[in-house]
Amino acid sequence: MQAPQDTTKVHDPTASVAPADVVVIAPEGELDLASAPALCARLAGTRAGRVLLDLSGIVFCDSAGLRPIMGAARELAIRGGRLAVVAPPEGEPARLFAVTGLEEFIAIVPDRDQGFERLLRSA
User: Fold this and answer.
1) pLDDT value at position 123?
2) Does 10 have pLDDT greater than 70?
3) Does 86 reside within a domain?
4) How far apart are CA 55 and CA 53, in angstroms?
5) CA distance 79 to 101
6) Residue 110 burial by Cβ neighbours in a 10 Å radius (0-12, 13-18, 19+)
7) Using an 8 Å Cβ cutoff, are 84 and 115 in contact?
8) Most-buried pick from 37, 69, 78, 103 (CB within 10 A)?
């Protein structure tokens, strides 16, 4: 059996239209028990006040994938920051957020533009 790969990677901010004070993190692949620790480390490693977590590249997400997202939202709120999560309506993460009710507590948006708008509006 092959060890799972760390498919989580930080999006290159120079290739994005993100405002200068918003960090974009865009994991790809599966977000599960094997990959959640890597995302947790990426999110914990950022000291930005506003983070856009783009889950557009996630093809599978289970409940273990929710832990780093909930933790990041909590930590950012404690520091006075904000988290917005891009979860296209047809994707796995959006379904999981709807089933668990997390969309009531975390800003879930369908695309990056709306995510940036949400983060900047909350400044």
Assistant:
1) 57
2) no
3) yes
4) 6
5) 24
6) middle
7) yes
8) 69
Sheet holding 107-109, edge to edge: 22-25, 50-54, 82-86, 107-109
Structural domain contains residue 6: no
φ/ψ bin of 49: left (φ > 0), alpha (ψ from -120 to 50), beta (otherwise): alpha
The answer as to whether 38 is a domain residue is yes
Residue 60 lies in a domain: yes
Domain holding 115: CATH number?
3.30.750.24
Per the structure, how many domains does the chain have? 1
Is residue 25 a contact partner of residue 87, using CB atoms and an 8 Å limit? no
More confident residue, 115 or 20: 115
